[in-house]
Design brief:
With 477 residues, the protein is α+β, with helices and mostly antiparallel strands. The protein is built from 9 helices and 6 strands, in the order H-E-H-H-E-E-H-H-E-H-H-E-E-H-H. The protein has a 4-stranded antiparallel β-sheet with strand order 2-3-5-6, with no helix packed on it. A two-stranded parallel sheet has the order 1-4. A hairpin with a 7-residue loop joins strand 2 and strand 3. The protein starts with a helix and ends in a 21-residue tail after the last helix.
Length: 477
Amino acid sequence: MLRRAVIATMVAVLSACSLGPDYAPPKVDKPSAWKEPASGAGIWPDASWWQGFDSKELDTLVKTAIAGNYDLAAAMDRVAEAEANAKIAGAALYPQLSAGGSVSRQQQPQLKGTSFGGNSNNTSTTYNLSLAASYEIDLWGKNRAASDAGLARVRSSAFDQETVAITLVSDVATTYFQILSLRDRVRLAEDNLKNAESILDLLENQSRIGTVSDLEVAQQRSAVATQRAAIPALVQAEHQAIHALALLLGRNPEELSVDSKSLDEAKLPAVIAGLPSSLLRRRPDVRKAEADLNAANLDIVNARAQRFPSIDLTGEGGSESLVLSGLLGPGSFLYTLAASVTAPIFEGNKLEGQEELTQARYHELMETYRQAILAAFRDVEDSLAAVQGSTAQHGFEREAYEQAQNAYRLADLRYRAGTVDFLTVLQAQSTVFQAEDALVVADLARFDALIGLYKALGGGWDGTAPAQPQPAKPGPS
């Protein structure tokens, strides 16, 4: 009866203490379609999406960044750290073995003859060889939970590495196109400066013969100085963008040069958006949040199991002999076996606090996971809106530039005919410069919007989970 009662009690305890909530990712509402239109809905970006811009130099820069960026290298090292921690956590699932050996020599004095006689020594040597083993029975799943949590954190680190890589590639592309756009703006500013200087030369010649006033000359000189002052800031921004690109590539700024001269050398690929239902699998930051949540759930199991008894088995065997040749003889072996049970009774609410801490952490990561999901859908919608908006803005800016050119041409003709004053020409000239510069900026915005969309869609990552790490295997430490 007593034996049956003990067995029944153990079964009840084991069934009642599946020590942790069954893990399942929280359910979320997924939109059936994107709110913003996309020409390639249902199609996902290619893993080498940057090649769609048809720039060989950009392709080379991306490959260089992947090989040399220090942030990405650090992310890889964090994966290695997580793998090492997973091995440490998994080691408790296996027996611990240790071997030892010793040699001891003892000398005892022995009296000879009478009390006035001399002494002699009795010397003995003992040889010992031992092997010890210990194992904790994982009755409550504590060690298994710790091992599985370590593996989940390896996956989390691998997803984080993927996020760093996607961010790196998008930053390289964004910075590269920014450099080309700034070069277009510098060249445009220099062309407009030359045009303004030629007009100034004409006005100064006319001023000498008295056909224009000093006021008109002063106004044009002011316009020339204004356009001249705009160039250094653009050149400085271009140099700083090159320095930023060098940092992304893991190089010193002095070592990097960009050969392409204009944004016109690249092309815009088609807009593609995939389907919302697959986005969460293709966003490594969302997958990381899920892996962190899984690890936190296993931490609860571990913390709760700490409050229950642990059973340890230990064994030690060896051989001892006074003669080295007899160390492995049949009469020299000895062994001990033992089992022990340790149960916490009072630790000042420490274990209860640890369990509550893991539960709070789990609920925190649950909200983080939900927030990551919402942010993923928002990022795509924002990027699609940016693509549509930048395309429309570029069209309007082109129309504004064309109209400004036409207005400047008419103002110049009328000024030469004497029907308008020079101020009208000056204003038309300034409008053309501003409209052309705004057109170049709008063109860059289209490239930035597409890069942002590729990044929001997971950068072409197909959602393939990193290789599942294996638990620690028993072996020499």
